[in-house]
């Protein structure tokens, strides 16, 4: 059965391109430095007149080549088409050969959908660059100060791609009412190496108490299909750390924590786990927010993990911290790693919760009705656990 060309390119092809840049553009002499590829040539292949060593740059997590001196970008696949004088079908076929994956099936409708998706992606990536620059200008000072108070350094903010969005920029990308006015902190939403859109956040200094929610998502941004920050490296390892917020994920990631992903708010869903298992995930560590909803998300996510034959572990921050972002304002990433390593197996977490609730309700005194209910709950947990050893 054929796959939609846009989904194939975004979810299967583009996430693999970064590691093959020298093979994709052999004449541009790209050299890798840290998390980016750099060339002394401009995007069009011409030499510069100055001494800048990174005229063309491809950053990990991005799907475009950025010309640092001429200040414009071009999508990797579009540039590959241009340099080889080929159309999108031939480009995808050749790139599939380079990165060693099977080619997709094409239809006219699928190609038109891809063209529209690429126009939107280019618009968003150009906006992301402007938003990131604006954060370090006078207009972004309030948001930048907020991030500094939360323990973010300038280097971490830049590495995470955070930005400031104004009313004018919001209009350019078609953001809904309130973005750029009450919602100024911008978080890029990626899946693999593809920018799907943005989440916009109120910073704590905002005085408007009537706003119904903390975050506002750019229209057309699908945050439910794939876990935020799910990468190929995690797929190979088979182990991920799952939190609620993209901001928590980015903060931990730029401080050096590998394998952390976000649900985008809420617990795990069957859709998210179906994609995760399809990409080789076998074990998860849940670290949801320290509040009532976080506890509910934890319990439902454990049962879903069991259903998909994923081994769940549950970590917990000290009670005084609501989430990772707050915790990292006062603790090191190594201390966070220690909290994660102390996580309990999901089945034991459920058993403890059942026993704690029983003690609260009965005072620890057994009676027929309470004992029967307790027995049923324990049996239900055991039956839900896919690993026979864990049932004992």
Description:
By secondary structure, this protein is α+β, with helices and mostly antiparallel strands. Helices cover 46% and strands 15% of the residues. The chain contains 17 helices and 14 strands. The strands form 3 sheets. Strands 1-2-3-4-5 form a 5-stranded antiparallel β-sheet. A 5-stranded mixed β-sheet has the order 11-10-12-13-14. The longest helix is centred in the N-terminal third of the chain and has 28 residues, at 108-135. The protein is globular and about 85 Å long.
Throw out a few tags for this protein:
15% strand, 392 residues, alpha+beta, 17 helices
Short note summarizing the structure:
With 392 residues, the protein is α+β, with helices and mostly antiparallel strands.
Helix content: 40-55%
Beta fraction of the residues?
Answer: 5-15%
Mean of residue pLDDT values: 83
User: Unreliable runs, pLDDT <50, ≥5 residues?
Assistant: none
* Count of extended strands: 14
């Amino acid at each position: 059965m054929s796959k939609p060309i846009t989904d194939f390119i975004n979810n299967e092809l583009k996430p693999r391109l970064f590691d093959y840049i020298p093979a994709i553009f052999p004449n541009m002499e790209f050299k890798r430095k840290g998390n980016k590829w750099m060339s002394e040539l401009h995007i069009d292949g011409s030499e510069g007149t100055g001494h800048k060593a990174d005229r063309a740059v491809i950053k990990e997590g991005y799907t475009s080549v950025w010309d640092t001196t001429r200040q414009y970008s071009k999508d990797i696949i579009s540039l590959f088409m241009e340099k080889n004088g080929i159309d999108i079908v031939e480009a995808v076929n050749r790139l599939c050969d380079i990165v060693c994956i099977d080619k997709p099936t094409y239809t006219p409708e699928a190609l038109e959908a891809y063209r529209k998706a690429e126009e939107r992606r280019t618009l968003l990536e150009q906006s992301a660059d402007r938003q990131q620059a604006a954060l370090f200008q006078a207009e972004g000072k309030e948001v930048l100060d907020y991030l500094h108070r939360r323990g973010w350094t300038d280097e971490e903010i830049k590495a995470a791609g955070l930005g400031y969005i104004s009313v004018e920029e919001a209009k350019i990308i078609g953001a809904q009412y309130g973005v750029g006015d009450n919602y100024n902190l911008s978080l890029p939403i990626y899946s693999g190496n593809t920018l799907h859109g943005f989440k916009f956040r109120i910073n704590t200094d905002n005085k408007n108490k009537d706003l119904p929610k903390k975050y506002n998502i750019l229209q057309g941004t699908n945050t439910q299909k794939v876990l935020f920050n799910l990468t190929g490296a995690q797929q190979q390892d088979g182990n991920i750390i799952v939190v609620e917020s993209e901001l928590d994920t980015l903060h931990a990631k730029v401080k050096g924590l590998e394998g952390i992903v976000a649900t985008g708010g809420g617990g795990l869903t069957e859709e998210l786990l179906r994609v995760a298992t399809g990409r080789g995930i076998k074990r998860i560590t849940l670290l949801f927010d320290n509040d009532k909803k976080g506890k509910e998300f934890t319990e439902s996510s454990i049962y879903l993990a069991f259903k998909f034959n994923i081994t769940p572990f549950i970590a917990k921050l000290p009670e005084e911290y609501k989430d990772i972002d707050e915790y990292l304002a006062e603790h090191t990433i190594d201390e966070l790693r220690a909290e994660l390593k102390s996580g309990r197996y999901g089945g034991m977490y459920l058993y403890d919760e059942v026993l704690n609730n029983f003690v609260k309700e009965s005072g620890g005194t057994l009676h027929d009705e309470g004992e029967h209910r307790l027995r049923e709950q324990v049996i239900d947990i055991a039956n839900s656990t896919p690993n026979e050893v864990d049932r004992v």
